[in-house]
Amino acid sequence: MEHRKLYHSCEVEYEGRPLLVEGPVEPGRLRDMRMHPDLDAFRRPDEQHEALVEIAELPEGRIILARDGSTIVGYVTFHYPDEMERWSEGNMEDLVELGAIEVADDYRSVGLGKTMIRLAFEGGQLENMIVFTTEYYWHWDLKGSLSNVWDYRKMMEKLMKSVDMIWFATDDPEICSHPANCLMVRIGKEVPQSSVEKFDTIRFRQRFMF
């Protein structure tokens, strides 16, 4: 399976200075950066930093990040689904998960999430992949203006739609456990029909719900 990792970068202005958005970033360069202390949604910042390096080392793994100097202030991860999850059952080489997206609190006003995700798809590098993300309301940072799960769901859906990811139905119990949870998917233009059909069998275990 060809994993195309085509480096791209751009700048986003923040308080009169540029932030660099770049990726996929190589693990060696990642090690020389530091995490913003507010990037703690999934684990402690230093532990998350190490996790990003490990993902970057994977053949299919890719890290897109935003940084202020040498400080990482936002990131998006792409990798194969965890082997404990149903999405890994088909052992599909062309099924990749958009696993995590996080932006430090003070940097959330300049569209870094959308910029990072769009950059990940630059140059057609994921056109041979099915990219999916599972959105669970219990992972969301529900505070401030987005304290309502439905407002946050709309925000996440709009974010994913910016790269043509769309809502897909599934009978996955975790996603079905709350109506705000959802599965969003982008099927690349070069993905064969056989892979699409295999993904359909993973999405639905109960044939009558297909």
UniProtKB/TrEMBL annotation:
Traced from the root, the source organism's taxonomic lineage reads: Bacteria, Bacillati, Bacillota, Bacilli, Bacillales
The record ties this protein, via CDD domains, to:
NAT_SF (cd04301)
User: Any idea where the N-acetyltransferase domain is?
Assistant: 23-192
State the name under which the record lists this protein: N-acetyltransferase
The cross-references to InterPro entries, in alphabetical order and at most eight, read: AcuA, Acyl_CoA_acyltransferase, GNAT_dom
Gene Ontology BP annotations? acetoin catabolic process
Pfam families listed in its UniProt record: Acetyltransf_1
Q: Which UniProt keywords apply?
A: Transferase
* SUPFAM superfamilies in the cross-refs: Acyl-CoA N-acyltransferases (Nat)
Q: Which PROSITE patterns match?
A: GNAT
Q: Name one GO molecular function term.
A: acyltransferase activity, transferring groups other than amino-acyl groups
